Amino acid sequence: MQDLLDAYLEHLRSERQLSAHTLIGYSHDLSKLVALCPLEHIDSWPALDTARLRRMVGRLHRQGQSSRSLARLLSATRGLYRYLIREGHCQSDPASGLTPPKGERRLPKTLDADRTAQLLDGALEDDFIARRDQAMLELFYSSGLRLSELVSLNLDSLDLPAGLVRVIGKGNKARELPLGRMARESMAQWLPLRALANPADGAVFISQQGRRIGPRAVQLRVRQAGVRELGQHLHPHMLRHSFASHMLESSQDLRAVQELLGHADIATTQVYTHLDFQHLAAVYDQAHPRAKRKGNTE
Description:
It is a single chain. The chain is mainly alpha-helical. It contains 14 helices and three strands. The protein has two domains: 2-86, Tyrosine recombinase, N-terminal domain (DNA polymerase, domain 1), CATH 1.10.150.130; 113-286, hpI Integrase, Chain A. The protein has helices spanning 2-14, 20-36, 50-62, 67-86, 113-120, 128-143, 147-151, 181-195, 215-230, 236-251, 254-261, 266-269, 271-287, 294-297; strands at 158-159, 164-168, 174-178. A three-stranded antiparallel sheet has the order 1-2-3, with no helix packed on it. The longest helix has 20 residues, at 67-86. The chain is elongated. It starts with a helix and ends with a helix. The model has no long low-confidence stretch (mean pLDDT 84).
């Protein structure tokens, strides 16, 4: 079994020209499989069937392997068997149609409304960097933009008098979003400073050298704002999550939030209903007389 595995890895290296990092990942995942084969009395790749592979995946899951890790292992196994079938060593793929155990879906981290206000209402210097960063933060939270959507934004996508911004999202799909009052004010204060920097193109957000600001630079500026204003880690997607959660708390309109976020599938948006329930549950625990702990009522 190890000889055929080595031949497959060499095929990936020489013919597919995969990176060393990717090869290490494939080797690590498939070596887990080889190590479990003796427990299932398997001494060749053709002997591994779907039932045995399912038991092996279950064993790894019980040992603490995440659903994502097991999905990667099954993907590597399917790749191996495509090679073995093509080379005439096997006739079928035991991983075909096999899915990993579902992992616990992590809820996105958000800021509550008070923490968001603390972030956005802090003291602000009247200079290029401060005005630009404030406009970026306001736009992330006002309109729920993705990082990629913000950095690719051009001036002709803004309509400040109408309070609208047009973005190109995933799948090259355009959507028009409302621009809140505070975001419009921040943009109005930023754009004159932007014009003084001799912009290289129509990018809304630029560096002091006039070039379009990149994703890494935006992430850094958002992280620094989080540390400075909140004393915590902050990333652009947390502001998008906060926008979605606060909109859903206020409106209870899942379809509208889906449209604003640009989600193709409403199931992606439904994660925010869990966040909304957590908020309601916390309010209930605080307010309902029969929900309070005994120590709080004495």
